[in-house]
Design goal:
By secondary structure, this protein is mainly alpha-helical. Helix content is about 50%, strand content about 5%. Strand 5 (about 70) and strand 6 (about 75) form a beta hairpin. The termini are far apart. It binds s-citryldethia Coenzyme A. S-citryldethia Coenzyme A binds near residues 307, 308, 363 and 368.
Length: about 425
Amino acid sequence: MSAQVKATISFSDGTPSAEFPVYKGTMGPDVVDIRKLYGQTGKFTFDPGFLSTASCESRITYIDGDKGELLYRGYPIEQLAENCDYLETCYLLLNGELPNPAQKADFVGRVTNHTMVHEQMTRFFQGFRRDAHPMAVLVGCVGALSAFYHDSLDINNPEHRFISAIRLIAKMPTLVAMAYKYSAGQPFMYPRNDLSYSGNFLRMMFGTPCADYVANPVLERALDRILILHADHEQNASTSTVRLAGSSGANPFACIAAGIATLWGPAHGGANEACLVMLDDIQKQGGVAKLGEFIAKVKDKNSDVKLMGFGHRVYKNYDPRAKLMRETCHEVLAELGLHDDPLFKLAMALEKVALEDEYFVSRKLYPNVDFYSGIVQKAMGIPVDMFTCIFALARTVGWIAQWTEMISDADQKIGRPRQLFNGATPRNVTPIAKR
Ligand code: SDX
């Protein structure tokens, strides 16, 4: 990175001013390189929540929150959702270019031949209660995967990194479906090599040994679009977790497990589940007739009630994924004849209110991808507590691509933020006999 511009910071407390290089990216805000700030001034920056902090240099995904733009390796998400499938998108995120037919066939073949998990993995499930939250199961099982691949955990070996990426992308659908089957008390379904990635997942979720299962092509395409739209999203909370875990040299399975744990939160990937729980609560309290009361609670700061599935840290315009997810939502509701279902009518009424209400408009709180992806998954018969597992399934490729980019960066160091300390100053311990 070369700097044509310099930033000077001066202090009113006599600390000597200091000059820092300013770098320009190919798109997006410039950055001030403050790596030498502490050494030159003895001061830290302070940015809880990283509202103004770039944690890394990346070439993978770009978001313009004001324009509502999302690009994977320079390709607009709208074009990828229209022209590609999820595994093509995985290839793009990992390699930087879309595959040609031969490259796609090779990549699909590699993923397909790694979809089974070690048979011993089934024993991990037995240790969980049937009503365990599937995200708890997924965090545990993905972390445990590293126990099976001692032959390929050298993160500095590109071949080990590649096979770990293939294994994670290939096995996530199998593990997610196993978590669902275990909770439903149904037998695990083995993956099939003659089905598409999304078709395989739907069969492992909804198929049983008692009858053949053929996925509805509209639902198969809808799921594939959900996976594409959730594949990566810059340095969000879970991706930042994966990068931080990876910076210590932890193996990729452990890092992805850390990402899954972070995604679970309702402010992040858990929002689609929280959104459906919110809709269900409103429905139980009287549905559309009670919307006004609910919205009043959301506006009341003391209520701590949020409109789940709305708002975003970066998108202060419409989430481009939400637009695409909304289309898919209506396709699926039409295919399944659910447009008149009360819950979905309530969701559309809530969307209308939020898009017209000054409180939300002034705070730029638009429906995000989670609002519509929750509705689509509910319509497809996917249990609400499985939604975030499917988000994790989709985001695994993004986490892996970002982790690989970080590991391959010669300048990367272990992440170790500092703090503004406001605790007790040094004092002496009084022995307990005198306390
Ligand atoms: C994802 O980062 C990513 O890229 C994440 C993600 C990805 O792909 O990885 O896009 C996936 O996590 C999408 C977001 C899913 N989360 C939700 O839908 C949960 C509900 N949304 C909120 O929790 C919230 O909007 C956040 C956390 C998403 C963003 O919060 P910010 O940007 O930190 O904004 P804020 O909390 O400072 O809110 C600004 C104002 C505040 O009001 P004022 O203090 O200005 O009066 O808006 C209000 C907030 O109270 N507000 C909301 C609200 N979100 C913000 N009020 C009601 N309902 C909401 N959902």
